[in-house]
Amino acid sequence: MTKTSPQLKIINRLNVFRAEHRLTQEQLAKEIGVTRATIVAIEGGGYNPSLELAFRIVRYFKTDINTIFSVEEETE
Amino acid sequence: MKKIDAILLKIFLYELPILVFYAISIAFFGLETAAKENVYAKVWYDFGGLLIFGSWMAVSICISIRLIMSSSFRCNVLSKITFLKEQDEREVVLTGQAAKTTMLTTLAILIFLFCLSCFQFSVYRIPPEQAVDGKNRVLTLGFDFKLLDDSQQKGSSEDNEKADIISYSALPISSSTVIIGIIGWQIISYNYLMRRAMK
Predict the structure, then answer these.
(1) B91 → chain A, closest CA residue
(2) What integer pLDDT is reported at residue B158 of this predicted model?
(3) Among B104, B98, B149, B143, which Cα is nearest to B121's?
(4) Taking residues B104-117, what's their average pLDDT?
(5) For residue B159, what pLDDT is reported?
(6) B92 in contact with A at a CB cutoff of 8 Å?
(7) How far is A8 from chain B (nearest CA, A)?
(8) Interface with chain A: mutation pick from B84, B86, B88, highest number of A CBs within 10 Å
(9) DSSP H/E element including A37
(10) CB–CB of B88 and A38 under 8 A?
(11) What part of B 50-89 touches A (C-beta under 8 Å)?
(12) What ipTM goes with this model?
């Protein structure tokens, strides 16, 4: 019997932070150097950003990584 | 080197539609016969064949060698043939996924074509005196694998007595057609997968 590690789901509050800073997806994408489609994908949960991009995002919002990104265990 | 690469790539891409037009004029409009009678057709036939096709083939060989050697050139060619340029990390991931799927489907096609090229079967009628239990129809299944192409195949006298009903030995298309098909598949498959993933 092999022990399998639990599935982790990354939750982000990027849309909340973006709304608080009154930014459009296009503006935020331009600020952090990605395409709007990537912002759409991150907010929709379809794409998990790399550590580098995640830090670029939190640095832009002048906060720490746990306030925007958090992890929860996926239940089957 | 980058300048030379850009020039090579431009020649390769811009000559391609002319080459397609040249191939169409040979295949469908009988350019070869028209060239014997008409001076303009002869100029187009000679110009297209010698200059366009010749230079395109030479450039293609150079591009192939550069593609194997240079990774930056590979990225450049990829963005040119797919009309897509990776703009951020997500698109790099999507490119990788599209390339992986394309590679695996191409591998599947190649295995399928390999099986088809090796498999042989035929149904034929033998003379009544050779019939077994009154049955004169024979089905043969075979497997033919050759590392080197040996086109000098001689039929034996026994073969001449057989009347073929159905016969299949290897693919009925040329190796050039197979190669063009695979190149086309690679480009179309990659383009389709990338565009679908980008949506």
Answers:
(1) A38
(2) 53
(3) B143
(4) 90
(5) 56
(6) no
(7) 20
(8) B88
(9) helix A36-43
(10) yes
(11) 87-89
(12) 0.78
Q: What pLDDT, on the 0 to 100 scale, is given for residue B161?
A: 61
| Contacts B198 to A, Cβ<8 Å | 37
pLDDT tens figures, B65-92:
998 988 888 888 877 777 777 788 988 8
| Whether the Cβ atoms of residue B11 and residue B55 lie closer than 8 Å to each other | yes
* Cβ–Cβ < 8 Å for B137, B166: no
pTM for the structure as a whole:
0.69
Residue with tokens 């912002």: A39
Q: List CB contacts of A47: < 8 A, sequence separation 6 or more.
A: A38, A41, B90, B93
Q: Which of B90, B94, B95, B196 to mutate to test the interface with A (most CBs of A within 10 A)?
A: B90
3-state secondary structure of B121: strand
| Ramachandran category for residue B17: left, alpha or beta (phi over 0 → left; psi -120 to 50 → alpha) | alpha
Q: What are B150-195's pLDDT values in tens digits?
A: 655 555 555 556 677 777 777 777 888 888 899 899 989 988 888 8
- Paired sense of beta strands A69-73 and B119-125, if any: unpaired
